[in-house]
Amino acid sequence: MKKTLAILLAALMLVASFGTFAFAEEKAIEIAVIIKATDSDFWQQLLVGALNYDFENEEVHVTTYGPTSEADTAEQAEILDSVVVAHPDGIVLAPTLYDNCTAGIEAAVAAGIPVVICDNMPSTDVFVTEYATDSYAAGAELAKLFLEELEKRGVEPKGTIGLISAMAGSDTLLKRENGFRDYIAENAADITVLEPQYADNDIPTALTAAEDIFTANKDTLLGYYASNNCTGDGLAQFMTEHNMGDKLVAVVFDSDEAEINAIRDGYMLATAVQSPYNMGYLGCQTIYDLVKGNTKAEDYEKFIDTGATIVTTENVNDEAMVGVIDPFTLKKY
């Protein structure tokens, strides 16, 4: 009897085992998300979008990567190379420079891995689509606000504007800076936007750049334009510490806490806030749809504008701006 029960028990276990295999969950779609830097709120906000997509979709598993700083461009390229070897189902990538990730992108696509770009256009066109801000238009909008503020203050549009840039060689930064520069040239011929002072994406270096620009141009300086969050943080520190809010006009990009606080306190005028959340979320959605066969690469425009919101001293405290300024409030996981 005992022998019979043992045989029956073994049979039941075997059936259960086969049943487990038969009804095993399908392998998750692996998406690698590679950002420019882990030390930046902007890129962490992109990851909130990507990881929220993971949280909402049981078929997806998102793994995130990135160097510590945007200055680590070679390291980002090495990360991409390693990810390609691991062969995920798709890659969402924010390349730091125009050309630092080109070889890796082309290797991924050659291996059958679709690549979606965020924020910065690479030098190759083999990717599916790019989710990014229309940086040129946003830069021009900040220039328009700058000139309007001079008029409100009764300041003659004649003099210089200091430009603080994170680094050379970034397509996105160049577009932001050219949009600003071109608008000023077309609408205020007596204002010169100075050559960019590069901060190597370092906040203390950006602070020093702001101080150096002021020292060298104090007789003609009308204000500043800082074209990303790290340079904006450094400029915010300069404007606050030296109480320059009513003396100089300052406009920036992104929504780091230091930038927003400086706008709230009246030390800076405005910032163009992008939507890194949407870049991360839509990037993962696109990879999912491609892998599932819901869409094809040719269904997508090469550039998709994720928009920018201009946050000023007038609207910074509006309830509608909470999720725009701080996408961490949207976190679900």
If you compute it from the alpha carbons, what radius of gyration comes out, rounded to the nearest whole angstrom? 24 Å
Which stretches are poorly predicted, pLDDT < 50 over at least 5 residues?
1-24
User: Could you give the count of β-strands?
Assistant: 13
- Continuous helix count: 11
List the secondary-structure elements in sequence, H or E: HEHEHEHEEHEHEEHEHEHEHEEH
**Percent of residues in β-strands:** 15-25%
Which bin fits the share of residues in helices? 40-55%
Q: Report the biggest beta sheet as strand number plus sense, adding barrel if it closes.
A: 7 strands, mixed
Describe the 3D structure:
The structure is a single chain. The protein is α/β, with parallel strands linked by helices and 333 residues long. It has 11 helices and 13 strands. It has helices spanning 2-22, 41-56, 73-86, 102-110, 135-153, 171-187, 203-217, 229-241, 257-264, 276-292, 322-325; strands at 29-34, 60-65, 90-93, 115-118, 130-132, 159-165, 191-193, 197-198, 221-226, 249-253, 270-273, 303-305, 309-312. The strands form 2 sheets. Strands 6, 7, 8, 9, 10, 11 and 13 form a 7-stranded mixed beta sheet that branches. Strands 2-1-3-4-5-12 form a 6-stranded parallel beta sheet, sandwiched between helices. Strand 9 (221-226), helix 8 (229-241) and strand 10 (249-253) form a beta-alpha-beta unit. Helix 2 packs parallel to helix 10 (276-292) and helix 8 packs across helix 9. The model is unreliable at 1-24 (pLDDT under 50).
